[in-house]
Design a protein that fits this description.
heterodimer, A: 341 residues, alpha/beta, 14 helices, 35% helix, disordered N terminus, disordered C terminus, B: 316 residues, mainly alpha, 77% helix, 0% strand, globular, binds adenosine-5'-triphosphate, binds magnesium ion
Amino acid sequence: MDASQQMSPEIAVEVRGLSVEFPTANGPARAVTDVSLSVARGERLAIVGESGSGKSVLSLALMGIVGGSGTITGGEVWLQGQDLLALRPEQLRRARGRDIAMVFQDPGTSLNPVISIEAQIVAPLRRHLGLSRAAARERALQLLAETGLPDPARTLAAFPHQLSGGMRQRVMIAMAVACEPTVLLADEPTTALDVTIQAQIVDLLSRLSSERGSAVVFVTHDMGLVARFADRIAVMYAGRIVESGPVLDVFAAPQHPYTRGLLASIPAVDGPLPDRLTQIDGSPPPLTELPAGCAFVDRCPSALPQCSSSQPALTERRPGQVAACWATATIDVSHREAVSA
Amino acid sequence: MLRYAGRRITAMIPALLVIIVLVFALLRMIPGDPAVFIGGENIGPEALQALRERLGLAAPLPQQFLDYLASLARFDLGRSLHTQLPVTSIIGNAITLTATIAITSTVLGLLISVPLGVVAAYSKSKGRNRGDGALMAVVMVLDNVPSFWLSLLLMLGLSYGLGLFPISGAVSWSDPGAMAARLALPVIVLAIGQVAALTRVTRSAVVETLGRDYVRTARAMGTPEPTILFRHALPNAALPIITMTGLSFGRLLAGTVIVEAIFSIPGIGTQLIQAITGRDYPVVQGLILVYALIFLTINVVTDVVYTRVDPRVRLA
Ligand SMILES: Nc1ncnc2c1ncn2[C@@H]1O[C@H](COP(=O)(O)OP(=O)(O)OP(=O)(O)O)[C@@H](O)[C@H]1O
Ligand SMILES: [Mg+2]
């Protein structure tokens, strides 16, 4: 992102106070609680956090989709001047796939087994862009080639079960980027792929964001990918964003003890990065029994008395960097430098 | 595909042989002598013996069985003891009627059940349990209506009451319109008999596929709901629906026996009842063989249909 863009970022999507609950036998499981974020056009936001922290549920909710019997209990998702979550079903349907699209976490089950790849990619192109059958097919071939699939024509004629996991993942990606959506959500888009293909996909997503101005929100466990690709990072814990900010700032001076834990094994910002997040001792509280205060308190090395009783708000620590933590809220910049060293 | 069918048909031969033996033996165990039926109660012993010889019933049973097998091997099912007509032509005429009724009512049954099941599944998936509940209640009522009772009800209402469909009279293909009217009621009765099972299986299969990841993908790509239901969810639910259709077709064949009798339609069901009553051994044997073939073929047809709707299924 260049300086002029940073001065006047045109917001692609803005989320306000989004919450998602799933009913369970033990009461509602609050998978996502009061999440707000905004992503500018052309910006790339990485969402990280340990398994079960709500990354997938959050990205689905951005499209107004909730799995099972869950519900979006509150919040707004502003996209192109309208709140997606307040749209009538027909309008929402029109926005999905065209203005906001998603690469799903599990490519093995996310493609329809009885419909050919061609039909699956071509249908949204025809529906949203009004392309003719032939033009849509051309575009599909081109998209598959861009994802690095060696034989696009053959892939197009295939059914999902005839493709490998990596190929399905790339088909999924081609489908999602087909209409050049304003916002592209990608849930672990490169997990199933080997390193070279991963590089191709990153390249494709980079071009989508820099040339087409799409905002890319991607979920990952790969901190190397975050460092290479993302502009900003948001750290989720037990359904909340506990810290977010420019990648380099957060890596250099994480403000939330959880973020520090995640990054703990990184010796220096310019040193080699580990592939996966490191484990932190303990586990998050069940989503049905979230405490009144900070959900991280039981695992936190710097917990204060007020942490268990009162929920810390996200406060700005540096320009663009916010964190929700009582313990670090008052610590000054010099201390932060010491921590990151 | 042809090789597959060939192999499956070869595999049926042992089952058919067992059926042939069983039917031959069982028929001759039921009390009642065909010659007495034909010659009448007052026929003298000598005339009876002559008649039995003429009908081929005098030879020892093993001899009769071997003769029967030999003619079967020539695809000759013999002649009716009563009318002397070739069994093949009796079956030929009757089976077109029964097949027409059975296939039409299966198609009609599917046309009713599949949309009903899909709509019920959709209501359920949207949490509109009342719509789903109401549909399934109707289906349950239909399931518990005996076909003979429904037949009588429809006869009273539609035929006697409104004069819509003739329930007796000639059954002939020379007037297709009249034929359609004549067959309409039995087709409706048999179709309704299939609705319950088919709707239930459609509903539960579609409820399941609606929860799958690929449906979520379709939704995320902005696919219209009807397309999601009928193009994305339904074809993935096809295997259990096809299986149930096959099973239900078998049950329907049994049902045709009753319904043909009620509406006096000379299909294979009616022929079978007549032949059994008259101890017309060759006709009964031929008909049962045909039923057995149909039942065995349904499985093959079901498997072939699977491959048409689901590219993952391969004939093995
Ligand atoms: N359909 C559902 N029904 C009930 N609970 C659900 C459902 N989907 C998600 N959850 C719950 O919501 C929480 C967050 O799940 P989510 O899939 O968002 O985690 P995640 O951060 O994406 O994890 P991962 O890194 O393993 O993908 C989990 O506790 C999960 O059990
Ligand atoms: Mg996930």
